[in-house]
What does this fold into?
Amino acid sequence: MIPRLRKIAGWGLVALLVAVYPANIYMAITPEAFPELSISLLYTRLPLQFIFFYWAYSVTQPDYNLAHKKI
It folds into this structure.
């Protein structure tokens, strides 16, 4: 990422992940609407999304940005 845009991009990713999470919940509780996907895959996506939340949020933090600056 471009360093000066990293914080904005991180917040944009957090917003995107929050926006699509209800769709992932819907897919998990109505697996009959998605017969081509296994139920285990639908439920595995839910906790994985929290990892992505954390990753996107960590990019917005000053410590992350300082640690990845070129000296």
